Amino acid sequence: MTINFDLTEELQDIRKVARDFAVKEIQPTVDEDDKAHRFRRDLVQKMADLGFFGCVIPEEYGGNEMGWLAATIIAEEISRVHASLRLPFNMNPNGPGCTILRYGTEEQKIKYLPGLVDGSLLGMFAITEPDSGSDVGSMRTKAIKDGDSYIVNGNKMWISNATVCDMGLLYAYTDPAKKIKGMTAFVIDMNTPGITIEPITDKLGTWGAPVGSITFENCRIPASALLGQEGQGFKICMEQLNDTRLGCQAGGLGLAQACLDAALKYANERQQFGVPIGKFQMVTDMIAQMATEVDAARFLVYRAAFLKDRGRPCTMETSMGKYYVGEVVNKCADYAMKIYGSYGYSEEYPVARYYRDAKSYQIVEGTSNIQKLIIGETMLGYRKRI
Amino acid sequence: MNIAVLLKQTFDTEAKIEIAGGAINKKGVGLIINPYDEYAVEEALKLKEKNGGEVTIISAGADTPDAMRQALAMGADKAISVEDPALAGGDEYTTAVVLAKAVSTIPYDLVLAGWREGSAQVAVRVAEELGLPHINVVTKLDIDGGKATATRDIEGGNEIVEVPVPAVITAQKGLNEPRYPSMKGIMQAKKKPIQKLSLGDLGLSADQVAAKVKVQSYFLPSAKAAGKIIGGEAPQAAAELARLLREEANAI
Ligand SMILES: Cc1cc2nc3c(=O)[nH]c(=O)nc-3n(C[C@H](O)[C@H](O)[C@H](O)COP(=O)(O)OP(=O)(O)OC[C@H]3O[C@@H](n4cnc5c(N)ncnc54)[C@H](O)[C@@H]3O)c2cc1C
Ligand SMILES: Cc1cc2nc3c(=O)[nH]c(=O)nc-3n(C[C@H](O)[C@H](O)[C@H](O)COP(=O)(O)OP(=O)(O)OC[C@H]3O[C@@H](n4cnc5c(N)ncnc54)[C@H](O)[C@@H]3O)c2cc1C
User: Fold this and answer.
1) What is the mean pLDDT of residues A132-138?
2) Regarding the domain delimited by A9-118, which CATH topology (the fold level of the hierarchy) does it fall under?
3) Is A365 a catalytic site residue?
C-alpha cells in the first residue's frame, strides 16, 4: 500500500492561485466588508472567472473537472482570509450544481449548470424551516400538483444567499401522507410570483454572507421544476448534504488555519515579562494543540474529498471531517482569542471575527450532534455505509 | 507577433535570508516567479491577445519549474529551459549569453523581461548580444507599425522612448496587473511543451559562458540602527544635527 501526503503539482498550483487571490483581492478590504455586512458579488464573480466554481462540474456544462480535492483546497484558502466567502462554493456548484448534475434533466442541466459555474447565476438550497432543523423530515412546506404545475406553500428559514440568489433547490412535501417518502426536490427560479424574501440581518457571524427566510404563498412552479421524481426528495437532500458538508468543512478548515496563523504571529511578537509570550509553556501548549488538530482536521477533510473524487462511499468519512472541523475551528478560535488577550477582544485584529465566524461550523449542514449520530450509527451497523 | 519572455524564479520576497558556509542558504526558502518577470509575462499575453502570435518563456538554469508552470498557466504557449551543470557557477554574463542563444532558436519580434533580472544587467546584456535596441524600466508599452513606444521611469519623472522592433523591453511595476492563472490555464499548462536544452544544444561550450565575475563573499546588511531624535528648540537642534552629521556620520 502506498500513502502520499504530497499534493500533485496541479493541486499545489491551484492552492497558490487561491491563496494569491485571497490575499490580494479579498484581504485588503475584508474587515471593512465584514463590518458593513457587505456581500461582495464582484469578488464572487472574479472567483467564477478563474474557474473556482467549476471543479466538480463536467466540461460540457462549463466546468473544469479538477475534482473535489481541488474544490476543497480552493474553499479552504478563500475561507482562511474571509470565511463568509466560502459560502458561494456550496450555494453554486456543490449544492445546486451537483444535485442538478445527479438528478436533473438535460434541459435543467443546460439551463442552470453553466451559469452556476460562470457566476451569472447565484444559487441556494432551502431545507430548513422555523420548526424543522435537524429533523429534516418534519418540514411542512408543501408542493401540491395542480395540472401542469405545483402550488407551493410554506416557510423556509436560515437560507444562505436567500436575498441574492437567482435560483435554487427547494425541498417540500408533494404527498405528506407518505412521510419522508412523500418529499420531493425542485429546482426553482426566484423571480417566480408568490415568493417573498426577508433578510436575516442580526446574526452572530459570517456577516459577509447573506442569509434570509423565503416564504411561498400559493407560488405556482411549473412541472418542469421537478428534480428527479416525486418522493425522491429526502434521498436527494441527504446526498446534497453529503456534498455541501464537504464544502462547509473546507471552509472551517481554512478558518482554523487562520486562527493558527494569527496565534503564531502574535505569540512571537507580543512581549510580556520581558519575553515573547510564545515562550510561556502555557502558550506553547496552546500552539501545539492547535497545530496538531488543524493538521488532523486537514487529513480528515482531504480524505473525504479523496473518497468523493473516486466515487467511493464517504458519508461517514464526510461526517467525521465535518464534526471534527466544527470542533477544532472553535477550539482554535478560542485559543487564538486567549493568546491575543484584550487585543483578541478588540476589533482591531481579525481574531474577533474568527471567533464569531467559527460558531456556524458546529451548526450548519447538520450540527455536530447530527454528524456524531451518522458516525456512531454507521459504526454500530444501524446505518448502511454509503 | 512572436514574443520571448525571459523568466526566472527568485526568493520569496518575505523569505529570511541566511548565510551558511559562505553561501546563501537556499534550504527551506520559498521560490516565487520574479515579480517583474510576471509583468513581462502579462504584457506579452496582452500583446498576443491583440496581435496573435506565440509567447515563449525562456529560462536559464534549472531552478524555475514552478515559475515556468505559472507562466504557462497564465497563457504562454511554450517554454525553453536551458539546463546545464556548467551554468552553476555563472554570472550575469553567463546567463545573458545563454538566454540570447536560446532566444535565437525561435522566431521573435520582441523580447520582454523584468527590469531587475540579475542585478538589472541580464536583459540589457541579452539586447547587446542580439544586437537589439532596448528600453528599460518600462511602465507603458505600445507596439505599432514596427515601432515600440515605451514610457520609462527616470529620476524624478519619466520619459518616452521609441525604438524599432525587434527590441528588448524590461518591465517595471505599474506596467500592468498580472492575471491569475485560471483553473483551465493550470490544466492546459500540463500539456504545453517545455523544451530542455543543454549548452551543447545551443552550440556553446562551458568556456564560452564561464563567469567573468567571481563572488568573494556574502554578508548580510547590518541591522538598521535605531533612529535618533534630537530634542530642544529648533535652532539648537539644527546646530546639533549639523554637528552630528559632521562628526559622527561624516556626512558633511
Ligand atoms: C448561518 C447559517 C446558514 C444556514 N444556511 C442554510 C441554508 O442555506 N439552507 C438551509 O436549508 N439551512 C441553512 N441553515 C440552517 C441549518 O442547516 C440548521 O440551523 C441546522 O440544520 C440545525 O437546525 P436548527 O438550527 O433548527 O437546530 P435544531 O435542530 O433545533 O437543534 C438544536 C440542538 O439540538 C440538537 N439536536 C437536534 N436533534 C438531535 C438529535 N437527534 N440528537 C442529538 N442532538 C440533537 C442539535 O445538535 C442542536 O444542538 C443555516 C443556518 C445558519 C446558522
Ligand atoms: C473588556 C475588557 C475590559 C477591561 N477593563 C480593564 C480595566 O477596567 N482596567 C484595566 O486596567 N484593564 C482592563 N482590561 C485589560 C485586561 O486586564 C487585560 O486585557 C489583561 O490583564 C490581559 O492583558 P493583555 O490583554 O495585555 O494580554 P497579555 O498580557 O499580553 O497576554 C497575552 C497572552 O499571553 C499569556 N501570558 C502572559 N503572560 C504569561 C505568563 N507569565 N505565563 C503564561 N501565559 C502568559 C496570557 O495568558 C494571554 O494568553 C480590560 C480588558 C477587556 C478585554
Assistant:
1) 97
2) Butyryl-Coa Dehydrogenase, subunit A; domain 1 (1.10.540)
3) yes
Q: Percent of chain A having pLDDT more than 70? A: 100
Cβ–Cβ gap B183/A66 under 8 Å: yes
Q: How confident is the model at residue B34 (pLDDT cuts 50, 70, 90)?
A: confident
Which residues on chain A place their C-beta less than 8 Å from a C-beta of chain B? 9-10, 13-14, 16-17, 20-21, 49-52, 54-55, 64, 66, 70
Considering the domain A235-380 in this protein, what is its CATH number? 1.20.140.10
Taking the domain A125-230, which CATH number applies?
2.40.110.10
Q: Which of B66, B186, B190 shows the shortest C-beta gap to A14?
A: B186
Give yes or no for residue B118 having a pLDDT over 70.
no
Q: Report the topology of domain B3-209.
A: Rossmann fold (3.40.50)
B187/A66 Cβ within 8 A: yes
The nearest alpha carbon in chain A to B183 belongs to A51
Please give the model's pTM, rounded to 2 decimal places. Answer: 0.91
Place B29 in a pLDDT band, splitting at 50, 70 and 90. confident
- By DSSP bridging, strand B147-154 and strand A125-126 are unpaired
With CA atoms as reference, the chain B residue closest to A15 would be B183
- Cα A342 to ligand 2 centre (Å): 6
B106 within 8 A of B218, measured Cβ to Cβ = no
pLDDT digits (tens, 9 = 90+) for A217-242: 999 999 999 999 999 999 999 999 99
Distance CA A255, CA A325 (A): 10
Place of cell 479523496: A306
Query: Helix A315-340 to helix A233-269 angle, to the nearest 10 degrees?
Result: 30
CB hemisphere CA count around B88 (13 angstroms): 2
Q: For A163-185, how does the pLDDT look when each residue is reduced to its tens digit (9 = 90+)?
A: 999 999 999 999 999 999 999 99
